[in-house]
Amino acid sequence: xxxxxxxxxxxxxxxxxxxxxxxxxxxxxxxxxxxxxxxxxxxxxxxxxxxxxxxxxxxxxxxxxxxxxxxxxxxxxxxxxxxxxxxxxxxxxxxxxxxxxxxxxxxxxxxxxxxxxxxxxxxxxxxxxx
Length: 130
What we know:
This protein is mainly α. It has helices spanning 3-7, 9-19, 30-37, 42-50, 76-88, 101-104, 111-116, and strands at residues 28-29, 63-64. Helix 3 (30-37) crosses helix 4 (42-50).
């Protein structure tokens, strides 16, 4: 684990907890996850996704940028793998490699899940607050 990850582990754990809720065939943005987690930035979500080990069960590939695109990380192979995984789940890309967020964006966790897991339902992201 890199130093950045160890300094933010409680936040990263909450990021992973939320990302695990994004269902197959849906995507969420870095900012959307950050808003649900609270006291977190989109960049921190990106760092959290980047620090996952290869065998992780966190569906990192479902997290994209606010433009509906995959954000490149280091090697181009990561972008191709992420796109392949999303396409296998039925997510479609336009010719510009963009995902229609109005069609594929996850609406966020329900109120019961937020409360049960200690998240602030007032501070969380909702489709109405995009």
